[in-house]
Amino acid sequence: xxxxxxxxNYVGITAFGISGSMxxxxxxxxxxxxxxxxxxTALGGGIxxxxxxxxxxxxxxxxxxxxxxxxxxxxFTFIFYKVFTxxxxxxxxxxxxxxxAFASSGASLAYSVDxxxxxxxxxxxxxxxxxxxxRDILSNEVPLILTREFYATSVIIGSGIYFVLxxxxxxxxxxxxxxxxxxxxxxIMAIKMRWELPRILHS
Length: 203
Known about the structure:
Keywords: Cell membrane, Membrane, Transmembrane, Transmembrane helix. Pfam families: Gly_transporter (PF03458). With 203 residues, the chain is mainly α. It has one domain (2-193). It contains nine helices and no strands. α6 packs parallel to α8 (152-167). The chain is globular. It starts with a helix and ends in a 10-residue tail after the last helix. The model has no long low-confidence stretch (mean pLDDT 90).
């Protein structure tokens, strides 16, 4: 089961790295800018979460496989940009898998530090969506999660479910896996059914 989640984690890093790199390319950034945006999107949320939890140095800055996957995904996107423009839909679903993996792993890490529901939900959410927020800010845009789609909401629900399962005594890995499945499923359903939160429309 841990192997499944580890694979999902690398799927997420790859998808997020491509997402950040594509944004950098569209914004006219050079190679360094594209690599920076791809790396930040893929690993920035986990780095912020570690800093908030007092884990120093952050895991994503010392565990080389994560950094290597993020940088390679960004580099390949830069080199084969035209190819990636034609695989948008698969990347969206890969992004959903990564979202679930990051949310459940972040929630688990937070619970191991302090079993506080607010901490678990916040760290799970930051781990999953923090990189995307960094990507949008560096691109001089309002973060996507604040303006459209049922994105961060699925992470909040999934992280909350992790806390409840763990608090009720379910063994680790099972609670992580269930949280991962629920978060990913909610995100995929939101994509297919075009769920959005209410907003006020100005004329």
